[in-house]
Amino acid sequence: MLYWLLKRFVLGPVLLVLYRPWVEGREHVPDHGGALLVSNHLSFSDSIFLPLVLDRRVTFLAKDEYFTGRGVRGRLTATFFRGVGQLPVDRSGGAAGLASLRSGLAVLRRGELLGIYPEGTRSPDGRLHRGRSGAARLALEAGVPVVPVAMVGTAEVQPVGRLLPAVRRVGIRIGPPVDLSRYAGGEGDRFVLRAATDDVMRAVLALSGQEYVDVYATVMKEAIAAQREAAEHGRTVELPTGASAPGGLRREAGPGEPAAGAGVAGTSAVDDPAVGVEGRRGSPARQRHHRRPGVRGGGPAGR
Predict the structure, then answer these.
(1) Over the chain, what is the mean pLDDT?
(2) What is the pLDDT confidence band of residue 94, given thresholds at 50, 70 and 90?
(3) How confident is the model at residue 155 (pLDDT cuts 50, 70, 90)?
(4) pLDDT, tens digit, for every residue of 156-184?
(5) In this model, does residue 197 exceed pLDDT 90?
(6) What is the pLDDT of residues 127-149, one digit of tens each?
(7) What's the burial of 255, exposed, middle or buried (CB within 10 Å: 0-12/13-18/19+)?
(8) Cα(198)–Cα(245) distance, rounded to whole angstroms?
(9) What pLDDT shows up at residue 146?
(10) How far apart are alpha carbons 77 and 81 in whole angstroms?
(11) Confidence of residue 70 (pLDDT cuts 50, 70, 90)
(12) Do strands 146-152 and 86-89 pair parallel, antiparallel, or not at all (unpaired)?
């Protein structure tokens, strides 16, 4: 199989020598059975370095444009992405997005590892952004462990827009599975999915040490592009704010305080279920936050 050929004999040995990836917490990845690896997303190379350091095969969800290119280059690109264990995901949302998630669910139910990026796209500014709820939906439907992962240094190796990677050491931190048992059976409730997603993002944040901003990465990417365009015309555009703990939740509770994220706390959003792919779900106006009646939003927090 091309995956193992590339990993063991072609790309793998070269990458291990050049980049000398260090790993913490590899023991948290199950030796067998389905599991969801949920990671921050800094670089195109994240999907290469994480599988490189694990003994088991990892399948990732990737935007379908990688699989539909034309000509020789398009066919080679599609062959490469299939070979390194990626599945095409339709980014248009709605029924197509749900069908893509079903492909990921099939991987988990076969007892395999599935990698996913809950931010939905590479971070446009190096910070960790609000997670989309597709990862939580997959985990609850499949009943598999959710293992948080932090990629370290990959943004410097291959930042967005850079074709050829630089050579420098990278790292991977893997944490213990996130306990989502209290949300069991709630995969059809968007507020439950929001809370579960925030728990997962909090675990990723603890590993990555990034600054967190409670804004979708796709929204921030569009805002940064708008700011650059405005600057070219001598105008000023403010970027979205939202520095807080995941989902607007409070900081970690101190002695005598209620636990952060207990119940379904924090602001909630109507999420596009498609997650783990680079894509956009409409403009910022389509991603308004909605507060559930009777649920308090958290104040400023954290990191």
Answers:
(1) 80
(2) low
(3) very high
(4) 998 877 778 899 999 999 999 999 999 99
(5) yes
(6) 999 999 999 999 999 999 999 99
(7) exposed
(8) 9
(9) 98
(10) 6
(11) confident
(12) unpaired
**What residues have CB less than 8 Å from 159, skipping those under 6 apart?**
43
Coil/strand/helix, residue 145: coil
β-pair partners for 87: 61
Buried b or exposed e, range 203-242, using 16+ CB within 10 angstroms: bbbebbebebbbbbbbbbbbbeeeeeeeeeeeeeeeeeeb
The letter for the amino acid at 9 is F
Residue 169 to residues 112, 151, 214: CA-CA distances in angstroms?
A: 28, 12, 29
Distance CA 256, CA 104 (A): 41
Kindly report the backbone phi and psi dihedral angles of residue 212, in degrees, each rounded to the nearest multiple of 5, phi listed first: -105, 140
DSSP run (H or E) holding 289: strand 289-290
Cα(23)–Cα(170) distance, rounded to whole angstroms?
Answer: 9
Instruction: Name the residue type at position 109.
Output: R
- How far is C-alpha 249 from the geometric centre of its chain's CA atoms? 19
